[in-house]
Design goal:
about 230 residues, 7-stranded mixed beta sheet
């Protein structure tokens, strides 16, 4: 069985993984990311977890096919709390909604300690996760925008503690100093987010419901798109 290389969505995590890390992939995606990190010599070992046996079986087979079965540990569990005794230093949580990722972090107190790095890629409710991190004592030390398969993704890197003064509206639009090579991906991400908000606005307007929250977010994102030199949708 030949394992697939991770796409740009997963590779966005690589620059945040520290050399020699004890790495955990929560909700593992066929083990593509940890296999890549092991092959590149960036990590020594990895813990792969999932709530279902199916993804773990796929991860197990991919690790075996890559000759790395002895360097990964597979854990069937819900969330990350069960990994408290695994000496994790760097943890990726990709492919879930922002609210679920926030709940996973909240339910695993060991993640709120010095020396543990979180690499997060929410598929929805990104602003909820950002707000949770900022209110819960985390510093966001990195952010990356990526395009993969015609979709746009926002990857966050966070560590607990330290003084962190987020820019205004950071949860919705990220930092103002996005690298030039990521601007197009950030614009694509913001436009996709804006489209979702406009659909929600239409739905609430038709139902005669209060849409002040959507209107505020739409205004914030449109202003950021204008600052970046892009037309809004």
């Amino acid at each position: 069985m030949k394992t697939s290389a991770p796409g740009q969505r997963l590779l966005s995590a690589v620059k945040y993984v520290r050399q020699g890390a004890r790495f955990a992939d929560v909700g593992t995606d066929h083990a593509y990311l940890p296999i890549y990190l092991l092959k590149e010599g960036l990590i020594e070992s990895a813990v792969l977890s999932d709530i279902n046996e199916g993804p773990l079986a796929s991860a197990r087979e991919n690790a075996r096919a890559s000759g790395l079965a002895d360097r990964v540990e597979l854990v069937l569990c819900d969330g990350a709390a069960a990994l408290a005794d695994k000496r994790i230093t760097d943890m990726a949580i990709f492919g879930m909604g922002g609210e679920l990722i926030a709940q996973i972090i909240e339910n695993a107190p060991f993640l709120k300690t010095d020396g543990v790095r979180l690499i997060l890629q929410p598929m929805s409710k990104q602003e909820h996760l950002c707000e949770y991190l900022l209110k819960s004592g985390f510093s966001i030390i990195g952010e990356t925008y990526t395009k993969d398969g015609g979709k746009f993704y926002r990857t966050l890197c966070a560590e607990y503690g330290g003084a962190y003064d987020a820019e205004e509206n950071f949860a919705y639009i990220g930092p103002s100093d996005t690298p030039c090579e990521e601007i197009d991906a950030k614009i694509g991400y913001l436009k996709a987010h804006l489209s979702g908000l406009l659909r929600a606005l239409d739905g609430k307007t038709l139902a005669n419901l209060d849409a002040s929250d959507e209107l505020e977010k739409i205004d914030i994102i449109k202003k950021e798109l204008s600052r970046l030199g892009a037309r809004s949708v």
